[in-house]
Write a structure and sequence with these properties.
Elements: E1 2-6, H1 24-37, E2 44-48, H2 57-67, E3 74-77, H3 84-90, E4 106-108, E5 114-117, H4 132-144, E6 150-153, H5 164-167, H6 173-183, E7 189-194, E8 201-205, E9 208-212, E10 219-220, E11 231-232, E12 238-244, E13 249-255
Parallel strand pairs: 1-2, 2-3, 5-6, 6-7, 7-9
Antiparallel strand pairs: 1-12, 4-5, 8-9, 10-11, 12-13
Length: 260
């Protein structure tokens, strides 16, 4: 089984550039074409937040057009740049999504690896959190099928990257501690995969691995001393493949070279 992950797409209205530099639609289109060309193709695609740049309905229409060529199921969760209601309204055919405005968490069962999506968005904030209701729901879902390998996906990472500006707006410390307490009780959580940072990294955490996906739009500069977030202009769009071999998950980061 192959799970493709795309993250931090930052799609805008047609004709706009992110930060006056990046044609995020063209970059996502390159990643979609690359995914379509893989053999074997991924079984599913996870899109882990910041799907659009400003949460507007027009941006989500562009996003739908860009994702439409993918022949496999696509599962979306929001990031801090998204607006839950507009996201759910834009994908009415995605039956796993809740009523517009409700937190977006769900389980995908019909695969060798069980997929659990969590919504870390705090409306109006750049940082993330998980409330007690979502964590109780997650605990119940993990307890219900202890023999199923499980991948949890969400936007804000619960671990520090070392990039100070991003760590200041990651999953808040209380939510991370409570999530860690839940996850540590279950050995079948193979991976927690996130976005938000615009760089790939991994860390061991509470008995599992946290993986962070790079961006299809642009990458952030890897600088452990900088106080502010800086965008890297010379790294290509990228995505990740999480490959299940029957015993564990192996993660590959794939850069998509070509015109910027």
């Amino acid at each position: 089984m192959i799970v493709a992950q795309i993250s931090d797409l930052h799609i805008g209205e047609k004709g706009t550039l992110a930060y006056d530099r990046f044609d995020t639609g063209a970059r996502l289109a390159r990643c979609v074409a690359h995914l379509r060309g893989l053999r074997p193709q991924p079984d599913v695609v996870l899109a882990t937040g910041d799907l659009v740049n400003n949460g507007g309905a027009g941006e989500y229409r562009v996003l739908r057009e860009l994702l439409a060529p993918l022949p496999m199921p696509v599962y979306v969760i929001p990031g801090n740049h998204d607006e839950r209601g507009a996201l759910c309204n834009a994908f009415p055919d995605h039956a796993y999504l809740p009523q517009p405005g409700a937190p977006v968490h769900y389980v995908v069962e019909a695969l060798p690896v069980r997929l659990i999506g969590l919504d870390t968005v705090v409306p109006g904030a750049t940082g993330g959190a998980l409330d007690a209701a979502q964590l109780d729901w997650l605990d119940a879902q993990l307890a219900a099928q202890r023999d199923r390998a499980t991948l949890i996906f969400m936007h804000h990472p619960p671990v520090a990257s070392g990039i100070r500006s991003m760590d200041a707006i990651a999953l808040d410390a209380q939510s991370a501690a409570r999530l860690g307490a839940v996850v540590s009780r279950y050995r079948h959580v193979e991976l927690i995969t996130c976005g938000h940072v615009h760089r790939a990294f991994q860390a061991r955490w509470h008995g599992t691995t946290v993986s962070v996906c790079p961006s299809t739009a642009f990458q952030g500069v890897l600088d452990f001393a900088a106080e502010r977030y800086n965008i890297c202009g010379d790294e290509p769009p990228a995505y990740q493949l999480h490959c299940w071999n029957g015993a564990g998950l192996l993660t590959h980061t794939v850069s998509v070279m070509g015109e910027s």
